[in-house]
Structure formats: structure tokens, C-alpha cells
Amino acid sequence: MARLLRAATWGLFPWRGYCSQKAKGELCRDFVEALKAVVGGSHVSTAMVVREQHGRDESVHRCEPPDAVVWPQNVEQVSRLAALCYRQGVPIIPFGTGTGLEGGVCAVQGGVCINLTHMDRILELNLEDFSVVVEPGVTRKALNVHLRDSGLWFPVDPGADASLCGMAATGASGTNAVRYGTMRDNVLNLEVVLPDGRLLHTAGQGRHFRKSAAGYNLTGLFVGSEGTLGLITATTLRLHPAPEAIVAATCAFPSVQAAVDSTVHILQAAVPVARIEFLDEVMMDACNRYSKLNCSVAPTLFLEFHGSQQALEEQLQRTEEIVQQNGASDFSWAKAAEERSQLWTARHNAWYAALAMRPGCKGYSTDVCVPISRLPEILVQTKEDLNASGLTGSIVGHVGDGNFHCILLVNPDDAEELGRVKAFAEQLGRRALALHGTCTGEHGIGLGKRQLLREEVGAVGVETMRQLKAVLDPQGLMNPGKVL
Amino acid sequence: MARLLRAATWGLFPWRGYCSQKAKGELCRDFVEALKAVVGGSHVSTAMVVREQHGRDESVHRCEPPDAVVWPQNVEQVSRLAALCYRQGVPIIPFGTGTGLEGGVCAVQGGVCINLTHMDRILELNLEDFSVVVEPGVTRKALNVHLRDSGLWFPVDPGADASLCGMAATGASGTNAVRYGTMRDNVLNLEVVLPDGRLLHTAGQGRHFRKSAAGYNLTGLFVGSEGTLGLITATTLRLHPAPEAIVAATCAFPSVQAAVDSTVHILQAAVPVARIEFLDEVMMDACNRYSKLNCSVAPTLFLEFHGSQQALEEQLQRTEEIVQQNGASDFSWAKAAEERSQLWTARHNAWYAALAMRPGCKGYSTDVCVPISRLPEILVQTKEDLNASGLTGSIVGHVGDGNFHCILLVNPDDAEELGRVKAFAEQLGRRALALHGTCTGEHGIGLGKRQLLREEVGAVGVETMRQLKAVLDPQGLMNPGKVL
């Protein structure tokens, strides 16, 4: 239907060239030739297998292939591609690593997918200023490899080896956010190609200061805009001093409440914990099996501390006191890099460990975030709901931020089960909203949470967002069907 | 001229009531009666002395009185006032403590000044969630008095005892930003009355989560918007654990370069310094005289460390090593609360110490912020320019952020000198821009830096800001003449 409408719209403007003879969602030959004229013939594909690879992310949202995929080599090409699509009324979908979890790359109205991964240079590294400028093809792991031995690192870690520009577009965060903040806190500047092809530097070209009060915070507006306002072609990031020493620890608790209470007490005691992750007993069992750990099958915290040797001793001692007051058992340290790596690899592989609980199934991850004081009740209720639902699911979360994920396993061919998963996720989202929380801490709204967004920010909030979208993308061509 | 235009516009819409018979910038009686009907007669004033009190801040910008001042008692009244002004095409200027430094409250097109200080309740304190909701009349000091003994505090400290909603509107920061961030980092949610009177909760009503990826970051858009997009009627702030112990320190350096190099090395060593303030020798001399200090008259750093006793020992030891490697002398601690208080009172009174250097003069404070690596060169050049200019000025800065102020003393009746001060400030702004910096780290654009903003963010940046302003405030009534 959407495609027919689009075709009809094009039909109204045959004088605009290219597409007057097109049929349905297929791009006409002239338009494809125009794309090739911008990026070169080998950097455009309309092959179905390529389009399908670009029509899905790692979520359960069904594949919606774009009409073409193009790989620009530089920002000038991105600008010309956007201008071309804009003139022709063709939707534009930015694409990075495809590791999103909310269907953000699904081409629900067709259009041109702009795969930005060929632009993969680290453009500028300012060690003294703790900043770096990266193109969209640079992933967080690639950046940290580049920074090795520099004394600096980039801490935001959503698990997947996502592109940093994609992480900016999503407003991603992950395990280190409790200490180092989210992408919202660590993006200093963005280079954005606007829908009509104009180039915007959100904080001014080449600028990388630590703070500013100059005009409206355009950087903040584009971080988390999920490709719906423009294409991010470079990101200036804030770097942090690499920790002198790192210690990881795990501890098992008699109850969810005890684990969360410990989290609140650790934060109140101002222990500068770098990571504090909760895993429920189902998740721990799955991780033990998948990653050959030998942890207690109980509600568990994984922690990590960064600092000088001396500071670490104190942080560990304080934390141990707090968790023991809350009834923890098995508080164990892992100072050696190998041991730490095993622990955090297991945490990062929690998604795959969960999937392995029911082979052949797909995973769907919820993403609510609530004020920390409300975490115990929502976690307990969620576990009760999970048991009552008959669904297979486990819980893992960035509890220092009040954010947790319920990883639900679903047979993608079973429409009834998929329906129950969606209903469960929506109910959980509403429960978070009722507790003053948000329906998404870090995955974004994408396709599936647009109704929850309306409930979260209210009519005036959504209307304000719509106004901003309409003024920056008057034709509604940037990643249509997402967020709003 | 602006007032005549406005009067002309009103003349076009006599059927809209109230003001068809008005003359120039004076509000007609019916309109004033309508204001009184909203807030009560005793909460509206058109007396010149009151209007003049509300037409200026602490800057050298000349007084531009509004046509009336109103004191709403609650958000419903603010909403009705905005709707009333909107229907009549009357400009709206929000007013807090009047402690701004960029002429943000000057009523350059007349209109109604909405003094929000009668709304002074702390609406909600969530100790476990580290958050608080305050109305516009609550100042940062009042909040911290309220929080005493709670184990929490709010660290953003611009010096003046400003209202927290005003600080949000300005995007303020100050001495603690190097560790705790600016208002941009510490505002979780805003209640905003839009120009037409509708109520917006930027992160959804009652929400106070630590992070979110739900839709466009409306909170970030309104923080730092300087009253040009709406009236902030409540702010939800992030609180921090009160430090267990505090130590202050001072040390004098042989050169500006040595002081700034020490700053960079302290940050690189990941010492979690809470405050790191630079004062040049002129400023030190003035502070010694004004605040009865006995510090060396040399480029100096004032530092403060927060943490456990044990952590402080280590922070101090590391810092002492670094500053001594950079040739510091007189590194001295102040652990006792009284001694610390004397030091920071002197720092907070730097503005008045500077003014006392030339009695009868007014002060003008520049506010550039550059990448830290560029601080030494811009500070050295600025001092050379100061000497060459014949102006009286001193330098003080939040060097951990790359932000510094040159406090220039000017005889407000001497137009030639005022011109030289403005020229000096503009040249300094351009120098900061050339070094990838910003023309304002924390004071805002206000009236005087609109040209510099254009140079800073470029044509597309300013055009984007204009679009946002136009869509949220289509009649251009919110604090007109500021920012853009």
C-alpha cells in the first residue's frame, strides 16, 4: 500500500525525470543509473539477496528489503545521493552494521538503503583533548584497537560491535554507562547530511570542545534520532583515560531484591563502579552452560571496577561489605585479564546463551528502564509474568541505570507465540511507564514501540517531535515509519 | 522600531480585543486587566521602577524594560498568561534571579516579563533515585540547604545563587563541571509551557529515569534555549552522593603554560578532580586584596578533591607529583572546612575582587571555551592583547573544561572604552573559534554573541536553529532578539 502511494506520488511528477515509467516499488532504470553515476556502478546493487541482507537487523521484525543498496565512498557522495532521492521523493534508509534490535533498517516504504560502512576512516585523533572523529564504518572495537597504547579508550559498549555513528543514531549505551554515560553524554559533534543533501555540523565544523552554551543543542537532537532526521557521516567522540587497573567480581544473592538493594547502596556510597550487571538465575544457568562458567544458579551481579591499584582495593572492600550486608554469597574477584575476559565474554554472549536454551528460535529483547527504586518490584513482577506466560525468557540488565532486558525466545514461524511475546513486551513497557520509567533505555523506538512512545511522552510531546521531524524532513523521506 | 512594528501588527487584528487602542510600547488597559484576571491584581506591575529592575541582568547590556511584570503562582497561571500573550502577539520574557551575564532578560521588543520566582517549591525528592523536581524559584543554594543531611547534593555551581530552572535555560555549569558535568548532563526532565500555553513534559510527565532512547531528546533541546522556545516551569535534576570528605589545594606556577600543562596531566592520569580553576596573577592579586588571602601573585590553580579519606590521600599525592614536575611552588592543602570555605569564597568572589580593582566600573566577562590542548596559546595571546589594549582585566577559568573568563572593567559612561571592551571580546571569541572552540562555554549567546554564533555553527547550523525556533514559536514571541 505504502509503495503504491509512493508510486502514485511519483506519477504526479513525471517532469521530475527518471521514474515516470516505474512499476510499484521497483526503481526505474534511469534512477538506478543516476545512483551509479554518483557512487560508481560497482557500488550499487538491486540484487534481491543484497536487498534482503539490508532489510533486517538482529530483531524479530520481518525483513523489509529496500529497492536498492548503495555504498558511498565519501561524504560528498552521501550528500549527492540524498539530494537525488529528495528530488525524486525516494525514501532514504541509513545502514551501518545492521546490529540494531528494533527494526530500524527495515525499508517499510522501500527506497534506497545507504550503506555507510565503506567510509571507515578515523579522521582525527586528539590525544591531549580526549577526542576522536570517526566515519560511519568505524566500529567501537576497531576504535579501541586503534587507541591501544594511547592511554585512552572509548567506553560505551552495547555488546554488539556496532558502528559508532550507528550507536550515536540509536542513542546506545550498555554495560559501562553507569560510570561513563551513554552516547548522549559522549558525542561532542556530528557531521550530518540533511535529507536535501546539505551538510550540517551540529556543533560547528571541526569543533571538539568539552562544553558549550552556544545556541540550540543540535548534537543532542540528532543523537538518538534513529536515522529519521538525517544521515550521520562522522561523529566526534569524547575519549576517557584508560583505567590503570581493572578488577571484575561476581556475587550471587538470595533474591532479586537483595541484588538490586546492593546496587542502590553501592551507588549511594559513591563507589565509582564501572559496570554493574544483573543476571537472573535462568540467565546464569544459560551462561554457565554456554560459556562454561561455574557460577551459582541464583540472581547474580557482575561488577567491574576501574582505577589505580590502591583505589581498587578500597572500591572492592566497600562493595564486599555492602553485598555481604545484603546476604550475598560467593563474592569472588577476577583480577587476571584472562579471568576477567572469560566473565565479560560470558556476559556479552548472554544473548547467544539465551538463544541456545531453545535452538532454532529467535530472540526478542525488551528494553525498559525505570527509576532504580522501582527496579525490585518490576523485576519480581516480570518474573511472575514470565512464569505465567509459558514463554521462555531470562533477564539481564544494566541495573546501575535501572535498565534491564528480558530476552524472550520465540519460534518465528509460530504466529500465536510471536503474538504472546509482543503482548508480553507491551505489557512490560506499560508497567515501566506506570513506574515513571521509559519503554526503551538504549535500543530505540524503531518500528515496534511507536504506540508506547505516545503513551510515554504524551500528546504534546509526540506533537512536538512531529513538528521537529516535519521541519527538518518536510517530505518525510528519512527512514520513514520509524520513531513517530 | 520593533515596538512600532508590533503595534502595527496589533492594529491589524483589532477584533482580537484588548489592544486596538494601544499607543507604541505601552500595553492597553484591557490587556493589563486580562493579566490581572489571571494572576490577581497584586501580582502585576507596570511601575517603571519594577520594569527597570526586570530589564537588566548582571551584564553591561543596557536596561530594556518590559511593558509589564507578572508573578504567576502556579503552572496553570503561566499557561494562561502565555496563551493570552500568544493570542495578542505580545512578547514573553521569562525571568528568574536576573543573574545572567548576556542580557537574556532585556525586553528588546517590550512585552510581558514573567517573573517565576513565586513558584518556589521542591515538588518531589527521590532519594533512592538520586533525583529531585524543583520549581523556578528554587535556587541552587536553597536546594543544597534542603538536601543537607540527605547524603545527596546538586553540584552544578555557576557562582551566582541562580535559580535551577534559569540555569537549565542557560545551559550553565561552573566550577564542578569537570567532574559532575553541566546542566546539559544533569537535567533529566523539564516541564515547559510552550508559547501558545500548552504544557510539555520533555521526557514525559513524572518521569525521572537515568537514561532513555525514546524519541527525540526534547530535554536536550530546551536546556540552553535561553527562554526562546518556552517557559521552564519545573526541572527534574540528577543528584549526586555527597562526598565523604573534601580537600582543597592551591598551587602557584612559574607560567600559564605550566599551570595548563598540569591540568592536562591531571586529567590524563584520571585523577577524578572535582574542581580545577585557574587564576592569573592579576586575579590572584585582586583576590589577595579583596578576600584577605595570602597567596603568591602568580598563575595559580585552585583545586578540590572529593572522595573517601583514603581516595583523597592518593588523589592529592598524584596531583602533587604532577604539579611539582611542572614547576609548581607552594602546593598547599586545606582540609579543614573553614580553610576550604575561605578559599572557595575567594574564588566565588573573584568577580567582585575584579570590580574592586577599579571602583565605580562595571564588569564584562568573556566566556570562550577551547579544546584543552589550545588553552596555553589562547591564554598567552589573551594576556598579550590585554596588555596592548590598555584595558583593565584579569583571567579566571574552569581550565579542566577548557573554559575561561576574561573579566574586563569598563566605565559604563565611557562609550569609547565600552567599544574597546566589545571589540576585545569579539576578537577573543573569533580566536577561540579559530582554535576549534566555542564563543560561550556557559553564559549563553543572549544579545551580544549572535554574530559569533553564526560564525561558530555556520550557515546550515543557524538555518537549522531558525527552523526549530520557527516551528516551536511561529510568532517569534518567546524572548525575541536572543540567540538567533
Q: Tell me the total number of β-strands of chain A.
A: 18
Sequence stretches where pLDDT stays below 50 over 5 or more residues of chain A = 1-18, 20-24
Using only C-alpha atoms, the radius of gyration of chain A works out to 23 Å
Globally, the shape of chain A reads globular
Quote the distance from N terminus to C terminus of chain A.
19 Å
Mean pLDDT across residues of chain A: 92
What's the main sheet of chain A like? 7 strands, antiparallel
Quote the beta fraction of chain A: 15-25%
| Structural classification of chain A | alpha+beta
- Summarize the amount of helix of chain A as a percent range: 25-40%
Textual characterization of the structure:
The structure is a homodimer of 484-residue chains. Chain A has 484 residues and is α+β, with helices and mostly antiparallel strands. The first copy, chain A, has 17 helices and 18 strands. Chain A has helices at 2-12, 29-39, 48-53, 75-88, 140-147, 164-170, 177-180, 183-186, 218-222, 256-268, 281-291, 309-325, 337-348, 350-355, 375-389, 415-434, 450-472, and strands spanning 44-45, 68-70, 92-95, 112-115, 122-126, 131-134, 152-153, 187-193, 199-201, 231-238, 240-241, 245-252, 275-279, 300-307, 329-334, 362-365, 392-398, 403-410. In chain A, the strands form four sheets. A seven-stranded antiparallel sheet of chain A has the order 15-12-14-13-17-18-16, with helices on both faces. Chain A is globular. At the A-B interface, β9, α9, β11, α10 and α12 of A face β9, α9, β11, α10 and α12 of B.
